Amino acid sequence: MPAAPATGSTARPPLTRFGLGTAAVGRPGYITLGRDVDLPAERTVEALRRRTHDLLDAAYAAGVRYFDTARSYGRAEEFVGEWLATRPEVATEVTVGSKWGYTYTADWRASGVPVHEVKEHTAEVFDRQIKETRALLGTHLDIYLVHSVTPDSPALTDPALHERLAGLAAEGVRVGLSTSGPAQADTVRAALEVSVGGRPLFAAVQSTWNLLEPSAGPALAAAAEAGWLVVVKEGMANGRLADRNATGPDTAALRALAARTGASCDALALAAVAAQPWADLVLSGAATAGQLASNLAAAELDLTPADLDDLSVLAEPAEAYWHTRASLPWA
């Protein structure tokens, strides 16, 4: 077990706009590019537990106070829960969000697995997974999202599920959804209309927005206007905007800005997300301490409207972006 981090009295002031996600370190396989060199060669449970705890320590010491996990991230909820249980002085200061709706099925294998996770947005799955999440996170569950909602999801239409989610909200947990796919904007707008007993059901959303895939922006702005917490995931496009991968003509504008400013491509990509007025929190998906430090350098960058305009040329059609994402290998 790694040593406990510095307490709140000695850690850096909170970075209120940035959080740490655990998708890349809670299981041996994921789709982030370059992950084959980022993680230990032997991806045992204990090795990834240590890596997760070390990243959580580093993030907290750097000022991060928001941590994101999910039922389908292998054993990530377990790792986060253990970290919080051994650091009571930290646990009182941080916000933890998790997600339900996918069941992890890879059995701790990185490759050669037909299906790594199975999605099912039913009341029965919610009943099972909220118990599992509570068992691992205890009282440290502040936000609970339906994982990867698309316009056809029962999460938008099932009254029985809505009643359960409303019950969880009544207990003080902020209920929301994450989105994926080229119709993210349609999903968010449909979710804004969902109510129980005349009151809006959802109060948070976690969506993909990055320089390559900005299509959800207007809908996320509407969610922010409605008072929702807006969290942005995949700000680096699963590693496509990292320095080691941003090498093609499609990212030339990003490399040019990096050369002009001396900032890394990943920091600039995340700073572009943070520059969106509707974005409350921007997640780092770092798998190493070096990546985390580089990601969090975004907090020191102040992109100008001209910089953002230069970077806007990176945007791809949403369908093309999600087609490419679907083809990324689990490694």
From TrEMBL:
It comes from the Bacteria. Gene3D superfamilies: NADP-dependent oxidoreductase domain. Residues 53-311 form the NADP-dependent oxidoreductase domain. Pfam families: Aldo_ket_red. This is Aldo/keto reductase. Coiled coil: none annotated. PANTHER family: D-THREO-ALDOSE 1-DEHYDROGENASE, NADP-DEPENDENT OXIDOREDUCTASE DOMAIN-CONTAINING PROTEIN. InterPro entries: AKR2_Oxidoreductase, NAD(P)_OxRdtase_dom_sf, NADP_OxRdtase_dom. It comes from Kitasatospora aburaviensis. Signal peptide: none annotated.
